[in-house]
Amino acid sequence: MGALLNAHHVPAARVRYLEDSLQEPHYAARGVPQEVEGQRRTAASFAFGHGGPALDHGPRADGADSAAVLQELGIPPEEFEALNSRGVVA
């Protein structure tokens, strides 16, 4: 169907699921799928002449950096704990 539409100047392409897309050989060649902490993750797909992006750890838990970020903004630890206990921050 895509070829027919393209032949009539209608842009069209097959929609793929992420897992299907990651099976494409060019993604593997660019190092997009990476194994990190026992799970398959994806890195950015661009590359430089000397290498490209790499993952060295999985995603951080929600709120893992909240206290540090808010402290940098001037929120003291006691105020963060009060906000956290009320569910305002994580």
The largest pleated sheet is described as:
2 strands, antiparallel
Question: Outline, from the CA principal axes?
Answer: elongated
- The H/E string reads HHHEEHH
Count helical runs: 5
Describe, in plain words, how this protein is organized in 3D.
By secondary structure, this protein is an alpha+beta fold. The chain is built from 5 helices and 2 strands. It has helices spanning 2-7, 18-21, 25-29, 66-72, 77-85; strands at residues 33-36, 39-42. The protein has a two-stranded antiparallel ribbon. A hairpin with a 2-residue loop joins strand 1 and strand 2 (39-42). The chain starts with a helix and ends in a 5-residue tail after the last helix.
Task: Give the helix/strand layout.
Layout: H1 2-7, H2 18-21, H3 25-29, E1 33-36, E2 39-42, H4 66-72, H5 77-85
Antiparallel strand pairs: 1-2
Structural descriptors:
90 residues; elongated; 9% strand; alpha+beta; two-stranded antiparallel ribbon
The gist of it:
The protein has helices at residues 2-7, 18-21, 25-29, 66-72, 77-85; strands spanning 33-36, 39-42. It is α+β, with helices and mostly antiparallel strands.
